[in-house]
Write the structure tokens for this entry.
Amino acid sequence: MAHAMTVRDRTDLCPGVFRPWPAEDGGLVRLRPTGGLLPSRALVDLVGVAEAYGDGRVHLTSRANVQLRALPLEDGAVPGEVVDAIEATGLLPSRSHELVRNIMVSPQSGFWAGRVDLRPLADELDRLLCADPRLAGLPGRFLFVLDDGRGDLLDRTLDLGVVGVSPAAVQLRLGSEHWGAMVPVARAAAELVALAHVFLDARGEGPEAPWHVDELGAPLEPPCERYWGIGAEQPPLPDGEVPGGVHHVVADGAVDRALAETVAAAKDVVVVTPWRGLFVPDRVRQ
């Protein structure tokens, strides 16, 4: 059903290294590892940055991102020395598109079960986003959600996404309310990028422009029926041993050096989960 387009009174203020949020304890910046996946040593290195310049911890978010808090600011900006230290971790691959690299993936995807490993799709989507100058203009709150068919991210509010229906196909999602076409996995990243352009066309420009697909006055394109084989929503990963690895639900969502070093000693990679936890896989990618 069509509804009135949401009218904002400002642009979004989602933080990044080059757009820090001036919190009471200092600058807050957010880094966006693709699908939450990062080398475990990069997490240790980021804790080192937090110890040298911030509050000593890496903070996990409900979008499977990581944040640094209490950073120094100079005229509202993060000092160059701190930017260099952050970039040295490898977790800031694009300066121009840092705010729009919001790609959430089923945390166990590629490590255990799921209908399809969506990590190659996430990597391709990230590459296409960063290669497209216009897409740097997406709102910082704009979120891609890729559920590999297990249903762990079906309940997420999103802008664009997919749900795996087979090893070779996914169904597109057009905001939180509507479903799109079934497409081959190999074509899905390009489809999502094309839809992101449709969103930019529909939202317009200026501080009153909507931040989300759900805020538009009509679907991005004529919606389809949800594929009958897509199952029910699944609960969050519990704390402790889970199929394919161990999920550490982090107290206060804050990772200190002890935890980061423990994770790095166990495996080469770690996945930040949208439940403010760390999934440490017990095997290499499938």
